[in-house]
Design brief:
Number of strands: 3
Shape: globular
Number of domains: 1
Structural class: alpha+beta
Largest sheet: 3 strands, antiparallel
Strand content: 15-25%
Number of helices: 2
Length: 91
Amino acid sequence: MTVQQHQYSREEIAQRGEVLYQSQIRAQVESGNHGNIVAIDVETGAFEVAHNSLTASDKLLVHHPNAQIWFVRIGYLAVHRIGHSSVPISE
């Protein structure tokens, strides 16, 4: 079994994922998908939307098996929460 070596550091993946989401993906997915997860391949810009991280990443990996994935929850500051409530993005 080979271990995949990532091309980018964690910080670079986060930065690239956020830039891709804000500049290219957000406008395409925001309407009707509030609370869903976007899995983004930070190398290609390809993405998939699903109700959870596992499903979104599985869908993305079908077409991009070497994807370096960044996740975003549509309409929220964080993908996961600790405690009783998620913090939505204020408009």
